[in-house]
Amino acid sequence: AQKITQTQPGMFVQEKEAVTLDCTYDTSDPSYGLFWYKQPSSGEMIFLIYQGSYDQQNATEGRYSLNFQKARKSANLVISASQLGDSAMYFCAMREGTGYGGSQGNLIFGKGTKLSVKP
Amino acid sequence: DGGITQSPKYLFRKEGQNVTLSCEQNLNHDAMYWYRQDPGQGLRLIYYSQIVNDFQKGDIAEGYSVSREKKESFPLTVTSAQKNPTAFYLCASSIRGRSSYEQYFGPGTRLTVT
C-alpha cells in the first residue's frame, strides 16, 4: 500500500491566488514527520516545510503553510499569493519513527504534483 | 558556502559499463543518501549511510553499490547488473539523530545509458 498519496498529478493556479496541494499518508507509527519539497525544472529538491505528528499547531514558513489534519491523515500544502517562480513539482514525504541514530525511518516520497502558475 | 556537490550533471554511458556518480558534502552531516527518480515518479531510496564505514540498502539497491570511507563523500556505482539504469540520481545528507531534520539535496546527475 502506498504510504504517501498525492492525488493531483497537475494543478493550475492564477498568479497571486492561493493554492492547496493535497497529501494523504498512511502509518501506524504514532511518531512521524511530514515534509514538503519543491523541485524546479533544474532538478534539485528544495525543502519547504515540516510538521511533526505531535505538533499542536500547523506549520508555517512564509507563504507556505501546512494544513495538518491528523485524524484524516492529511498534510496539505497551502501556498498563498502564488508567484510565477512557484511553478514546479511538489513532493510530500514522510519519515516514521523518532529516536536517535539508526532507529529513525527514512523518507518516503509521494509521486508529486506539478504546479503551474499562470500570469 | 555549505552544500552538496554532485558531478557530473549529465553522464552518458554504454550498456554493460559500470559508472560511478560522485557526491560530496561540506555540511558536516553524518547521514547521506542516494535516491533514484524516474519521469513522473517520486524519489526511491537506493542506499543510505548513517556513519562512516557503514551503509544500508534502501528499497531498490539491486545493481548498485556504494562506499563511505570519508564523512564528506558517498559515491554511488551503477553496475552493469542494473537492468534499467537511465534515470535522475539525487544525493542527500542530513543531521543524524532527529527525525525532524530535513534532508539537503544536491543538484542531481542525469544518467543516460544506451
Could you give a short description of this structure?
The complex is a heterodimer of chains A (about 120) and B (about 110). Chain A has about 120 residues and is an all-beta fold.
Describe this structure in words.
The complex is a heterodimer of chains A (119) and B (114). Chain A has 119 residues and is mainly beta. Chain A is built from no helices and 12 strands. Chain A has strands at residues 4-5, 10-14, 19-21, 24-25, 32-39, 46-52, 60-61, 64-69, 74-79, 88-96, 107-109, 113-118. Chain A is globular and about 40 Å long. Chain B has strands at residues 4-7, 10-13, 19-25, 31-37, 43-51, 54-57, 64-66, 76-78, 87-94, 104-105, 109-113. In chain B, strands 2, 4, 5, 6, 9, 10 and 11 form a 7-stranded mixed beta sheet that branches. In chain B, strands 1-3-8-7 form a 4-stranded antiparallel beta sheet, with no helix packed on it. The mean pLDDT of chain B is 92. The chains are: A mainly beta (119), B mainly beta (114).
